[in-house]
Amino acid sequence: xxxxxxxPRHLVRRRGQxxxxxxxxxxxxxxxxxxxxxxxEGLKFMVYLQKENIIDESGMPKERFSAEFPKExxxxxxxxxxxxGDSAAYFCASSPGGGDTQYFGPGTRLTVL
Amino acid sequence: xxxxxxxxxPLSVPEGAIASLNCTYSDxxxxxxxxxxxxxxKSPELIMSIYSNGDKEDGRFTAQLNKASQYVSLLIRDxxxxxxxxxxxxxxxxxxxxxxxxxxxxxxxxxVHP
Lengths: 113, 114
Prior knowledge:
The complex is a heterodimer.
Chain A: E1 5-7, E2 10-13, E3 19-24, E4 31-37, E5 43-50, E6 53-56, E7 65-68, E8 75-79, E9 88-95, E10 103-104, E11 108-112
Parallel strand pairs in A: 2-11
Antiparallel strand pairs in A: 1-3, 3-8, 4-5, 4-9, 5-6, 7-8, 9-10, 9-11
Chain B: E1 4-6, E2 11-14, E3 19-25, E4 33-38, E5 45-50, E6 54-58, E7 61-66, E8 71-76, E9 85-92, E10 102-104, E11 108-113
Parallel strand pairs in B: 2-11
Antiparallel strand pairs in B: 1-3, 3-8, 4-5, 4-9, 6-7, 7-8, 9-10, 9-11
């Protein structure tokens, strides 16, 4: 069984560019979560989505960040006008239902030059 | 007070010893707890989940939950150098607004030396 897939695994952007991070959940999982891990810091929740719905975006910065999980295709975390402080590892997790065990993807390591 | 707090370590134990990792949480409404292991540069990997008071054993790992004391621990018996990693305690919806998101502790770095 394929686990959570994320791409790209590494992404380099210059300040002001856009970053798009993709996440395909475990087959059959309809709940997706995005977490961010800044260097030398812990994992922080960003957003929780179900198909076509944002359930909880309390951890998302108010500006420049957005997320979606369309009916077809992967979940996308989009960061507009990236700044150096956005450099981090971004992890996606999925679960079959809300509150179920979450399984993490390999992460996307974003570097902003 | 942090919602999920771990003894920050780092923790160093000799090979073959028992490693004890501790976690406390502030939200009495939390019903389930998870331990993840994260190797440097890798993603979190689920080790154990525990929902009921008491002990849950899986191989060399034992999770212990005490809801009255708001305390959860992970014991690793016969520690191996390959157990060297950061261990993350997590609770769903700890202090949050939705059912499902995980709140993580800051992690405990474990080193098992030969």
